[in-house]
Amino acid sequence: MSNELPGARLQRVEREDCPPKYQSSYDEVLRTRGMDVMPNVFALLANSGGAMAAVCPVGAYVRYETEFDDALREYVILTVAQELRCTYEWAHHQAVAARVGASPDLLQKIGTPEIEAEPGAVGLATRYARVLTRNDEVSDEMVADLKDTFGTDGFVDLTVMIGYYGMLARFINTVRIPVEDGFEYPPFVV
Known about the structure:
Helices cover about 65% and strands about 0% of the residues. It is built from nine helices and no strands.
């Protein structure tokens, strides 16, 4: 049975409502994220079992299998959420950032020039996340710096991560996925 979510443009799809050929994909989302209950974002994405089966493994890869520091990954994801004003993505990843020990000072700087001025990987990765999410021109110099800092594979992984979270934020915003209870709401920078 599917559940209504107040304000959402789609219903939650529970495992038993998924076509049988996508139930293993549904289970894999729960397994890779270490959850017993499907978060709203993936339960609504499951309205297309094929999309869920194709999209969620990319998210699992960029979040759990890349070589990025956990805090750096969250600064990047939160930058994308900030740029796209995605409350749901922000709320979830703000909580993750706190769990992985991200700097509270840096978290308060998300979306500001100050975080992009941070030396090293944090400043570079958050600046790249902003530029790419806005679809601004990525300079040759920035690409060279990214490859020098993260390696060619890290540059590709970072690009895919930014793209994945941008796609997910656009889906979330379009279908108006409500944030589950117990999450903080974002102090988006204007």
